[in-house]
Design a protein that fits this description.
Shape: globular
Strand content: 5-15%
Radius of gyration: 19 Å
Oligomer: single chain
Number of strands: 6
Helix content: 40-55%
Number of helices: 11
Amino acid sequence: EDICRRFAANDERISYIRQAENIGAMRNFNYLASLAETPYFKWCAADDLLEPTYLASCVEFLESNPDYVLCHTSTKTIGFDGREMPNDIIKSSGASERVPNGLRDSYPQSRRFRDVLLGNTAVMDLWGILRTAALQDTGLLRPYIGYEKVLMAALSIRGRFAELPQQLFSYRIHPDSMSSSVDKDTRQEWVTPGSSQAAYPRFQYLIGYLDVINQGEMSVAQKMLCRAAVGRYLLQVSKWQRVLMESVFGRPIYDGNAEIVKANVATQRGGGDSS
């Protein structure tokens, strides 16, 4: 707080806002985004790092490419001491196009939506530079864990995502970070104080994806293709197996990024290499 207030006092471009009480992460995220009046917006976590050229590089791309609503850079995973971690987390949404060789000549809304929906990712590109108008048009985040992927699906309807090759963003994983917590109620309390995690969160995501389709400005054909992508999402047997094991039998299964996070936390606690 002292650092923020000092900068705000010395630079009229900076505003410092402090809530009178803990309103939770999601309401804070949304409150900040709703206040934005500039063309571009970025959420920043307290423990992640940006290289000095990050902002300029992303804004330069967006200024030259109006079809894109988001620009991020290549990412590395770091620990509490800033050193790169041996187990690298999956970084970007399935719809993120690599600059320059990964840019597509044509990339329709339904294809982007499908790639976000079916991609096994940590959607690191949500931490990129966003066009404010497109972000605010999505309705922002809903108050439950995992909604960031639904937000990315909503953004994919509104434009394309780019990932620059320079490694200018560092995502930090450490034992005390909320992303390292395996207790869902603890994480839900962080998201929305006084609430508890839904018994079947994947149904919440499903409703969110359907809302994205219904509210998006698309042709009838594009909406039908998006609904077909939701059908493919429902047929992901491995994910529903995890849902049943956790919901019915109370046996959590940690795979994909969750397993990588656990390995990195174990590395830092033990001081060893778990790659």
